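Researcher: Please predict.
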Amino acid sequence: MTSLPQHVYETHDTLTLARLLLGCELVHHSPEGVTAGIIVETEAYLWGDPACHAYRKKTVRNAAMFGPPGTLYVYQIYGMYHCLNVVTGPEGVGEAVLIRALEPTEGVALMGLRRGLDPTTKPGLRGLCSGPGKLVIALGIDRQLHNFSSLTTGPVSIRPSRPTNSDIITTTRIGITQGADLPYRFYFRGNGFVSKG
């Protein structure tokens, strides 16, 4: 299946994309194999939003956020984990959608090896990608390799959404103090792979 074309990232605003990406499949073609999962939870970070990394100015850390839409922004949190974001604003603006959780679809055994979990059990499978740091490890995303890479030409891509009858819940974001009241988090109602917040 082909990946989302560049114009999808260019023609929708960040909040719209945060919803549109739900049901799409995040895929990584790595030397170890292909891993993928359906996006079941996202969070939007907008220009002027105090929780957004681009709120104050462009820095070495957040520079990828100011790139063209459809660029990956991978950053480190807590000195040990990484998060994966899709740059969604016009070039130079600094907006992105955080991918918070995936429902694994391909390369599940490889994900389990990377996470040290047994995906043949229900808790192991659900725990593979049920959080932003977890899914980065499971998919083998590397900040040095993938930060600034393009979702249309690089090894990480997003395939179009699959049909779903799931309702989308809109709520506030998790794990932040500033801008915590903004309804910028989106997830599928009742999906067991959504992060616990």
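Model: Helices lie at 6-11, 14-20, 108-115, 122-127, 132-139, 143-146.
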